[in-house]
Amino acid sequence: MNISHEVSLLVEEIQRLGSKNADGQTIVKFGVLFNDDRCANIFEALVGTLKAAKKKKVIDFQGELLLQGVHDNVDIILLKNEA
Q1: pTM for the predicted model, two decimal places
Q2: Closest-CA residue to 59 (of 39, 36, 82)
């Protein structure tokens, strides 16, 4: 799979699992995304896909790298609805 395709799948999963914040942006907690069975089947390296999507300014989150457990409550904010 290429990165653009993985990022577009990530956008779909954030829209499926997330909710709208006060600004109308879709947000999802990292732990929700990481622990979702469907996401686990789609993404071999979720953290790498998140990092690539952040670099493309499709999503935003605090920090450089998200780790399961430690960063479960970090909000991932969807900035664009397509990759």
Answers
A1: 0.93
A2: 82
